[in-house]
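B., you asked whether I could sanity-check this one before it goes into the benchmark set. Here's the sequence:
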Amino acid sequence: MTIELSESEKAATLNRRLTVWLYRLVGIGLIAVGVHYWMRLIGIDSSSLGRFDLMPIWWRIAAPALAVLYPIAGIGLWMTAVWGAVVWVMIVIIEAVMHLGFPALFGPELLWLGIHLWGLSMLAVLRIIGWRERRQARGY
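And here's what the prediction gave me:
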């Protein structure tokens, strides 16, 4: 027995699948960046910042916060929880302040901020489409 879905149900299902895929892909990426921050903090990373005790004070403040927030956001997005996207937005705000507000200290990481903004804009587009589809289904 096959159940036929209406066009709006098919669109809603596609939108949900795309949102889950976006959440999961970004979640994996954020967990990887979080692991990178932890490697940097304990000295495994061979970057110019070195380990935590050799970092300048501004990185000593930012790196631990991001090392905690990135995996939390990644896990939340993997679970497709709304709070994962909220933590992701917090990360973007923190990094925007770091890299746009203090480029002499943290460096101007415009490409990284652009990747974040692209992902958040894709999420916003999917959310708006889903909201409009729900409104149409209710007959508004």
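One thing to flag: The two ends are 33 Å apart (CA to CA). Otherwise nothing jumped out at me.
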